[in-house]
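Methods — Computational structure assignment.
A single polypeptide chain was analysed. Its primary sequence is given first, followed by the predicted tertiary structure written as structure tokens.
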Amino acid sequence: MTGPAVRVRTREDLRAARRPRPLRCLGHLCVAPLWPMHGLNLGTLLRTCDAVGACMAVPRLPWVPEALRRGNTLRKPACVHWVREPLGWLAERRAAGDHVLGVELAEEAVRLADLPMARRPTVAVLGHERDGIPPEALDLLDAAVEIPMIGTGASLNVAVAGSLVLYKLAGFA
């Protein structure tokens, strides 16, 4: 018994099926790795931002622009917001009405599988890969999301964690 043949779509097919998107900030979804440790993760996360139509907020650290430039394999401009002071920026976003969601192990955290699609402007805050979100920033979160794990590690790297959360918030997963 044979079923229908699987037709693999070409790059041209995929491009033709996508909605055109202006090269500007859509303002709906933003991922904020405000305490980054590794440049490679920022570049990978930037690619995910392009895939789901999100922006990225990054701190003004000397090595970050080069990490983003090297990681932007699309070679097209990306929506990047430069943050001078992470705590002040998070407070501003919250005051502006954005939903500030931390990716963190917390008592009241919602499991990733139960995270609803973002229905209003949302900032997904990612902490330092070793130390998480700093304690002084936890008070600026509206909610937290936890990525369940059964392995021996306590967390995923910033690129993987951010990508999983962005796909859920964008309604793609």
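Note: The chain has a mean pLDDT of 88.
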